[in-house]
Structures are given as C-alpha cells and as structure tokens.
Fold these 4 entries.
Entry 1:
Amino acid sequence: MKIFFLLLNIFVHSMLFGQRITINEFRELSLENKVEYYFDNFVGIPHRTSHSLWAGTIVSHHGKAVVPYIKEQLKTATYFTYREEPIDDTLSLIAYILSSLNRASLYPQYYLSSGVPEFILYEEEIRWFYNEYMKRINEYVLLYRIIDENVMLNMIHISFIARNQEDLFQFFGYPYYRGIPVNLQGNEMKKFFEERLGIQNLLITIPYIE
C-alpha cells in the first residue's frame, strides 16, 4: 500500500510540474505546490519580470504564510550559481516574493480579495533576510574581489526586502542612493564593500557602472 501511494505521489507530481500550467490553474494549487512549481519552473529562465505575477499570486492568496517556504529555499542559494550554466537564480525568485509582500503591505486593498491575513514583514524579519543576502554577497565579493552584475543584482534584491530604502538605511546603515539608478553606483558599492569587509582595491568590472 505504501508503494502504491508513493507511485501515486510521483505520478501527480509529474503531471503537475512536468508541464506548464496557466495562472488560473496555479491559483488553485496549495501553498506548498505553488512554491514548488514557482521555483522548479522559473529558476533558470532569463527575463523574468513577468514572474512577479506568479510571485504576487502566491502572496495574494497566502500572505506571510509563504515566509517559511522561502527561508527553506534560501538555505542552499548562493550568488556563485549566477556565474555558470545552468544558472540557478533562486535568490532573484525569493526577492520577487519579498517585493510582492511589501507591495501588498502598502496596497492591501488590491490583495485582500481572498481574505489573506497579514503581509507586513517586521523589523526582525527584514533583518534576517538582509543578513542572509549580505552574507552571500560578502562570500562572493571576498572570493572574486569584484563589483560586477551580481553585486548590483544583490543590491536590487536587498531593496526588495523592506518597503523603502529609507528603512534599510535606518535599520542597517545600508547605502541610500536617493533614487539614483543602481547601475550608476559602482564606486559607492566599491566603497561600501571595502569598508564592510575590510579589504581594498575591488575591481569594478562592468563599464556602465561608474
């Protein structure tokens, strides 16, 4: 009997995640299955601005109940996987969910149709995600000694954790660029990481970051 249920579970999983589903079908999944589908299907696909729709759907239906699931996904995620094929950019997918939580906390009237309770990340939760992302980018910078696209991407990911950059500056002393595009902040990033990590002579490797 146990073997039967195991085979049934494998069959259902393959039917569910072995092919793409529509956003309406996605809405009908459980939270666990939504998260699994989201990460399994989008982890290596470029140009995923449209994936914010899927992240927003998870948040609109389940609110902060998604947080333990993305913490679990974060355990093995690093920035080193952005440098090689196949790319695993789990950190970007988590950031989309965090961004959706913050948007929902600012505009709950657009997210409450399904009766979801809470969206707001409290300071200790923001601090936890901030520290986890910074730990990963610190490891990356210390190994490669560069300020590159992945460092820039991390700065964007960080900005999704709180509702605004002023909060990040207030909580952590995180650089507040006052609306200046992050791709123009290479020197500021270099200074920030050299001071944070106690190192010198980081190389800025992307020409359009000045």
Entry 2:
Amino acid sequence: MKKYLVIYFIIFISLNTFSQEHTIYIDAYAVSSNITSFTITKSNYSKEKEIKGNPYYNKEWMFGELKIKNNSSYSGLFKYNIHQQQMEMIHKKDTFIISKPLYVEYVKFSNKTFIYSLIISTGKGAEKISGSYFRAHNNLEDNYVLLSKFRSDIKVNDYGTRYAGSIGDGSKRYTTNKSFYVKLFNGPAQKVNLSTNGIAKLFSDKKIVKKYIKKNKLNMNNAKDVVLLFDHFNKLNL
C-alpha cells in the first residue's frame, strides 16, 4: 500500500483483503511530515460473526470528521466499536483504527460528538487509571460536560444449572450498557449518579444548584435536564 495518512500518532491500517481468518495491521510511525516508517504484524482475530447482536454504536458507516489536537482534521466514514473501545475510520479507500486516541480532540458523526478521556477511579484507597470513548452531551470547552459511556459485554447462554430446569444453547450475544460521567474543568472523566444529590455535589455551592433545580422543575434523572443545568452554570463560569 503506497498511501499513508501522516497525522503524528500511531494508526493501524486494516488490510481485510489478505484473508477472512485474520487481519493484518500496519503500525505507522510518523517521524516527521515527510518521513514515515512501517512495521507489519498480525493481529489476534476473533470471529465476531459467531456472536449475535452488534458490538458497534452505529451499525452502518457514518460520514463525519476527525479532529486532531494539533488542529489537523480529516473527513471520512466512522464506526465506533464499543466492545473493543476503538474508533474505526475509512479515509479515501483505506480503513484505519485509531490506536492513540488521546491525541484525538473529537470525532463527530450523526450530529454526535465523541471524545476519548482518561478515567480516574478510587477503590480501597488506591487510584485506578483507565480510558474510554464517551459521547459528549454539551460543549467540550465548558467547565461541566456530561458524558455517556457505553460498555459492550458478551453474554453466554450456557448449559449451567443456575436455574432449575434451564438449559442454554451455548449461543453468545453482545449486550450494551450505558452509564454517565462528567468532565470537570477539562479534567479526567468521573462517574456520576444522575440524581439531585449526585449532580449538586459537583458544585461548590450545592444550595444554589438545588434551588435552581427546584425552581425550574428539572429532573436530574434525565440527561437533557442535566445538560440544561450545566449550560446555565457554565454561562455563569462557576
């Protein structure tokens, strides 16, 4: 393949024409604007056709835009693989999987904005750092940004004896779950409970926030109402 996409971070180029049993990836290391070196390796490939359901956020390729943090942007077709937490892109005639998502400012398609963010969670006194793609519900430059996180698991209908008389057929199916996070002052994503108390504790003055919620009859279990609340206090720059 003689065509490259030089964007100053590692990308994987999927060459599906080699075989249906595996996928070949080319690791493209952008050394400078004019020099690019390549190494070719095989990837571990699992036959997703054997699993029922859909591991993607969008079943079909959607036209959109990829914005890199160095202000470069690329248009193409996008699919978000929830199960693998990968953003796939068709640029011209080549298919790419973004392997360094922290260099991406956003991906937009179908009137939705997706970002990749670090997640810092605490448990038993230790901090755990992970990362994920999120759908952003309001302006990325705001102090309070509501995010949706999608997780895809594989559920097996096995032959277990968990329930008397139940016999599974061994089939596998993708299941998708959604949870909510917030990004505060451009920091890492943190999980949030969509409730009045859960949202109010994000602010320094909880009483003012609760008063505004009550006055405007906002439902903090509803993501749209949470965005309305965030938009109000974002304008106040609190």
Entry 3:
Amino acid sequence: MASPKKSAIKEKEQKLIEKIEQAKKDLARLQDKRRIELGKLACKHGLDAYEDSALDKAFAKLSKELSGGH
C-alpha cells in the first residue's frame, strides 16, 4: 500500500500534468485563432487571389524587413 506522502506527491503530479495539458490546449486554441485572424486580414487585402509561391516570397521579404534583417 502506498504511503500518504507518496499519494500526495502523485496527486500533485497528476494536477500539474492536467494543468500542463490544459495550457497546451489553450495555446493551440490561441494559435488557431491567430491564424484565422491572419487569414481574414490577408483576404481583406485581396491576397487570396495570388499564388502561394508569390505570397511565400513576399512574406519572407516582409518578415526579414520587420525583423530588422536578422
């Protein structure tokens, strides 16, 4: 039979694991929401009419400019 101390540790461990899993779900939800927002912004400016390869190059250039060339 497990000692009370080991049981308490296991319970704390399980609570932390559950908290981590919830945080992962929350992060994924926020990332999905951000992707949707970015997609809406792109469509608002008519970027959905361009080929993916052209957009990829333009976004790479924009990313480099925004990061200060780093």
Entry 4:
Amino acid sequence: MKQIITWDLGATKCAAAVVEYHKENNEFLCKKSGSVKIRSFAALTELSAHIENLLGIRMADADAICIGAAGQYDGECLQLDKGFSQPDKNYPYPMTFAQLAKQQNWPGFAIIHDYSPIVCTTFTSYIQQPKNVKRLNQADIPPHGRRVAVGVGTGIGLKDGVLFPQGDFWLGTNEMGHIGVVVPPLAEKYHQARHEELLKFLRSEQIIKESEPLTFEKLLAGPGMSSIYSFFDRNAKDKSPEEIGDLVRSGRAEETLATFAWYLGLLVGTIQLTFMPEGGIWLTGGVLLNHMEVFDHQDFFLGINASPSYLSLRQQFPLGVLCGSDCAFVGAGYYASKKLLSLT
C-alpha cells in the first residue's frame, strides 16, 4: 500500500486528501480529506503546513504528491492564466512549489492541469460505482475509448484522454470554455429567437461588450446563471447568486433553468463533435453539482440534439455526471501511481 497526497488547488480554495493506492487490486481509497481558503494564509509554506495538519501526515512522508491546479506550472512556480485580470482571481502569494519541495524534501511530485485528475478518474473503477456517477444514458463504456472530462464552476475546464491497453495513458492539451456559442442547424425557432434576444440583452447591460463574442463560459460558468435570470427578471439586481440558485432549484425560475439547460446541451453537443469521444463525456464542477436538476430537463437533450451531424453515432457515446466528492483525489492518485511511483 502506498500513500499519495493529492491537492485540488484553485484560485480561492485548496482541497487535499490522502489516497491509499493498493497495487494488488489497483484500488484507490480516499482516506482523509479537507478544504481550506488559500487567502487564510500569507505564504505557500503556511498553506502546505496547514494541509499537513489537516491530513495528519507530512508531505515528506508520503510516497508521492500530485497537485491538480488551475494555471500553468513552469517547473518552478505556478501562475494563473494572464487572462485573469481581476486581482482577486490571481493567487495571493507566489506558488513556488519547486523551492518548497526542495526545502522540505518532498517525494516525487507533479503539478498538473486541474482537469487532468478528473479524466484520470475515468480510467479507474470509480465510474462503475453508481454512488459516484449519475449516468445520463446507458451506453457501454469502452475501456480504451477517448473520453473527455468537463467541469463547469468559476470557469469551464476540460481535458481529454486515452487509456492504452498496456496501462499507460495520454492526455490532451486543450481549452474549451472560450469557444463561442453558435446556433446549430436544428435549433427550434423559439430557441433561436431567445438566443438572439438574450445576446442583445447581455450587450445592452454591458455584461459583454458590443463587439465581444458570446462564449459558453459567459453563460454557464460563474455568474452565468444570474445573467440568464436577469434576462427574464429585470429586477434581479436585488437578488444574490445564492438566492437565484435557490429559485432555480425550487422550480421557481423555470425559464432560467430551461435556458441554462439548453446552452449546456449545446456545449455537450459541441464537445461531442469536436472530440468524438467514444469513451464518453463526464461532467462535473460546482455549478453543475449544485444544479443536478438541469440533467432532468428536456431542453438539455434538445440542446445536444440541435447539432444533427453524426447524431446516431454520438448517441452511442457514454454521458454522465461525476458527482462523488473524492473524484479529483482518486484521479490524482491514479496519475501518481503511473507517473510518479513507477520512478521509485
């Protein structure tokens, strides 16, 4: 049995866990986990020390460390994309992991794209357990088919990957959230008209600039649902995002739910056509996990089917929601077992 420390590091919080890897049956068990706000600390050393206390194990005593993180790691320091122009969306202190690892004698470690662990989870038995996954169709999951993990939260994250028969794997390098929203060929007239009116509204309210294209991230991630709600209720400025979320969940904002569901379906259909992922699309992220009702709405499936090309083939691709709380930890453990433990 090996102990792997895993982090799920974002711009505002860091979750971490101890994952036990049992090589004899290739099982990954999340034994202890916790979460902290990164702005509660003044430096990476303080954050790391708090995580050690939280998990009851020193970083140096683990067999490997795998950190799924937002941003780009250059081998020395982790930095968020320069597109994050707002100060509160950048890391509050230098994420100098190489220096910390050397000072504290860390074992082998890796810092990877924050959705790499999610797609790695789909290489494990985790997705075979009903408590961890809400299946949206009953398509068979080919073990070596290309699959895509998609997260909708403060942004839209995406990673595709392929598991090879010999046990190794390949991960793609891609970004999806900034793709522009298009109205596909089989969109119903009502959906087309609503889309055009929504676009006018977003520009009139300066939610997007006059010349700025409408992207999936603008509508689905972060305050996207609030923007959609304000289209239907022009007095929405008096309501917080939390209040709007409660209205949607309780069935008191049906038009907002239907519109959000349709655009999410468009995103899924776009990803299907882009990647043709016979291993499936696996959805997760804070926004989606807080609004599981979206997957029971007919407009979600209408959005997928509005793009008719290769539809009969695409309907054979698995589609599901990764709703287990330890999804990212298990995937990071899997990555470490293949890429870090093999070096020791």
